[in-house]
Amino acid sequence: MRLLPHPATEDIELTEVLRALADPVRLEIVARLSVAGEMTCTDAGDDLGVHKSTASHHYRTLREAGVIVSKQAGRLVYIRLRRDDLDTRFPGLLDSVLSAAHAAPAAAARA
Amino acid sequence: MRLLPHPATEDIELTEVLRALADPVRLEIVARLSVAGEMTCTDAGDDLGVHKSTASHHYRTLREAGVIVSKQAGRLVYIRLRRDDLDTRFPGLLDSVLSAAHAAPAAAARA
């Protein structure tokens, strides 16, 4: 099991998290992870309507911003939200974004 | 008093709001407005360390995303947060972002 590079909790930057969440596809991935817990990238990206390489770019953006943890195990990559880290760093932020995304799905998620 | 174009409350998109907030300078402008209420662009942009044209671009981004209202009165432009509209559309979001920005100022605001 290989852990890819991630920012430490105290190095997670608010603007980077907001930027990572400011995309309909990434927001949908985060919403799925909030329900499912851990998923493989393959499952998380299912039916997103984006190419595999685009999905990989989104996972990387989310990981580098500190929103998700990615662990590689053989050919599979498992991802999950860094919910505790985000709640520690920015209390209430993830919940309010997830509630907002649920109440008013972005254009890409509605399509 | 001239009101520049703004999205209607129901047309404010979560991803656009997150994108508008995902910048240290714009986050600082929003934090100032949250304290001051209404400000002229000149006052809001004071000491931000960006050129006037860059500040104008930031105000426009915030306005088009539905984060602020801009009103032109002669040579002055007054701006304020659309706090009620944002709270209606995405409950808790603005407060959690402002708290997070206050607790962990972005790199630009620390400089």
TrEMBL record, chains A, B:
<dbReference type="InterPro" id="IPR011991">
    <property type="entry name" value="ArsR-like_HTH"/>
</dbReference>
<keyword id="KW-0238">DNA-binding</keyword>
<dbReference type="InterPro" id="IPR001845">
    <property type="entry name" value="HTH_ArsR_DNA-bd_dom"/>
</dbReference>
<protein>
    <submittedName>
        <fullName>ArsR/SmtB family transcription factor</fullName>
    </submittedName>
</protein>
<dbReference type="InterPro" id="IPR036390">
    <property type="entry name" value="WH_DNA-bd_sf"/>
</dbReference>
<dbReference type="InterPro" id="IPR036388">
    <property type="entry name" value="WH-like_DNA-bd_sf"/>
</dbReference>
<dbReference type="InterPro" id="IPR051081">
    <property type="entry name" value="HTH_MetalResp_TranReg"/>
</dbReference>
<feature type="domain" description="HTH arsR-type">
    <location>
        <begin position="6"/>
        <end position="101"/>
    </location>
</feature>
<keyword id="KW-0805">Transcription regulation</keyword>
<keyword id="KW-0804">Transcription</keyword>
<dbReference type="Pfam" id="PF12840">
    <property type="entry name" value="HTH_20"/>
</dbReference>
